[in-house]
């Protein structure tokens, strides 16, 4: 029996960009909130697709590495207006936060780190809140919790980006063995012919393999920057917060930015709408100026383009492959452990220096987790209090 298919109505590129830009200006609250904004706009208000098609796209992007909400936006743009629609949707949703963080990186050079200390502290609360929520979703039983704890320990023993990739791969292998009896959820499929889309997956893997070699053979810092951020965007499972340890291993250990600059920018990234991956814009600007900002931003989002457009035609096979989906149970648990390790270092060790810092972080966590306050409000309040501390 053939799965039910939904014919997506096409719309002009300009309308795709305008809609995505409006969402990029108002979408606070992280990837889960972004998906809620998308559903309200694309499914309910504009009726560009039905609930089943949207659920298919969200499920696909949750299985892929990279920023899930940005990938959903790219997928919607692609379904509406092809490759140009995907680019327009990405620019619209990403540009507002990228510009804000670029300007912040430029003007914060003259701002004392002590004045921005509250942003470092609120990063502790934000990451702790992410760990708490992800642990309840992905490490809720003994086996998954054990994988999470093991991943956290191994993250300390092997703190570089390569070690984290190995942890994710091993966790996926364990998941495919431990959870293969879990049956995939049946959902309607997206009807897209494969055509030449497989070439996008080929480009994804070619770049992943060749960029480190090219970076070693050339002396260009921008090529090295592109390589580092492309690998970060290609190997992050679990959303925006998990990119923190991968980027920290790339840019801080290489001396491009200091730990204080890294955490200050991460704290500021919580205050802006749109995808957290625009944190790359800030890091690129601090490292190598506006050229670095452009290179880092394109590099970290490029894997999302290649993966979403390349895998959409094969979604039906992926969602029905029980062993493939079982692997992600282990990967998600490992992501919790990697994020837990990042919560301690570099986030906690750099931000919490006095009892007053701990009290501020605890209060910020309370506002986020219990009172459900908007992250923008929490960041602003923490920055003001941090200035006095």
Automatic annotation (TrEMBL):
Q: Does the keyword Ribonucleoprotein apply?
A: no
Name where it mostly resides. membrane
Superkingdom as given in the UniProt entry? Bacteria
Q: Does the keyword rRNA-binding apply?
A: no
GO cellular component terms listed in the entry, alphabetical order: plasma membrane
Organism listed in the record = Anoxybacillus kestanbolensis
Q: What name goes with this protein?
A: ChrA protein
Where is the organism placed in the taxonomic lineage, from the top? Answer: Bacteria, Bacillati, Bacillota, Bacilli, Bacillales
Bilayer disposition of the protein: Multi-pass membrane protein
The record, for Pfam families, names: Chromate_transp
Q: Which GO terms describe its molecular function?
A: chromate transmembrane transporter activity
Q: Where are the transmembrane segments?
A: 57-81, 87-107, 119-139, 145-178, 198-217, 229-247, 268-288, 294-315, 327-348, 360-388
Which InterPro entries does this entry report, sorted A to Z? Chr_Tranpt_l_chain, Chromate_transpt
Q: Which family does it belong to?
A: Belongs to the chromate ion transporter (CHR) (TC 2.A.51) family.
Instruction: Tell me the keywords, alphabetical order.
Output: Cell membrane, Membrane, Transmembrane, Transmembrane helix
**Where is this protein localized, as stated in its record?**
Cell membrane
């Amino acid at each position: 029996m053939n799965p039910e298919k939904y014919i997506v109505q096409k719309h002009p590129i300009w309308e795709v960009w305008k809609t995505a830009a409006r969402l990029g200006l108002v979408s606070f609250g992280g990837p889960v909130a972004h998906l809620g904004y998308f559903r309200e706009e694309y499914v309910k208000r504009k009726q560009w697709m039905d609930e089943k098609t949207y659920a298919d796209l969200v499920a696909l992007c949750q299985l892929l590495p990279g920023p899930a909400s940005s990938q959903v936006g790219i997928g919607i743009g692609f379904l509406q207006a092809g490759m140009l629609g995907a680019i327009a949707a990405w620019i619209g949703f990403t540009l507002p936060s990228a510009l804000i963080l670029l300007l912040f990186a430029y003007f914060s050079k003259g701002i004392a780190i002590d004045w921005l200390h509250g942003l470092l502290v609120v990063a502790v609360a934000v990451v702790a809140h992410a760990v708490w929520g992800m642990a309840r979703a992905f490490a809720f039983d003994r086996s998954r919790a054990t994988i999470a704890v093991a991943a956290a320990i191994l993250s300390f023993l092997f703190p570089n980006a390569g070690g984290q990739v190995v942890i994710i791969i091993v966790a996926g292998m364990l998941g495919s063995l431990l959870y293969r009896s879990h049956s995939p959820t049946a959902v309607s499929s997206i009807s897209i012919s494969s055509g030449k889309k497989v070439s996008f997956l080929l480009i994804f893997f070619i770049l992943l393999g060749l960029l480190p070699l090219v970076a070693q053979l050339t002396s260009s810092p921008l090529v090295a920057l592109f390589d580092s951020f492309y690998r970060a965007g290609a190997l992050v499972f679990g959303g925006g917060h998990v990119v923190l340890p991968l980027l920290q291993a790339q840019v801080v250990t290489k001396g491009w930015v200091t730990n204080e600059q890294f955490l200050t920018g991460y704290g500021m990234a919580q205050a802006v709408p749109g995808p957290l991956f625009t944190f790359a814009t800030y890091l690129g600007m601090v490292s190598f100026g506006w050229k670095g900002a452009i290179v880092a931003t394109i590099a970290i989002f490029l894997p999302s383009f290649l993966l979403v457009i390349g895998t959409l035609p094969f979604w039906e096979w992926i969602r029905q492959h029980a062993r493939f989906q079982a692997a992600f149970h282990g990967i998600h648990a490992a992501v919790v452990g990697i994020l837990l390790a990042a919560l301690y270092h570099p986030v906690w060790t750099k931000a919490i220096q006095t009892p007053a810092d701990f009290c501020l972080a605890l209060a910020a966590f309370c506002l986020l987790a219990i009172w459900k306050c908007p992250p923008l409000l929490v960041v602003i309040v923490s920055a003001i209090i941090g200035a006095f501390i």
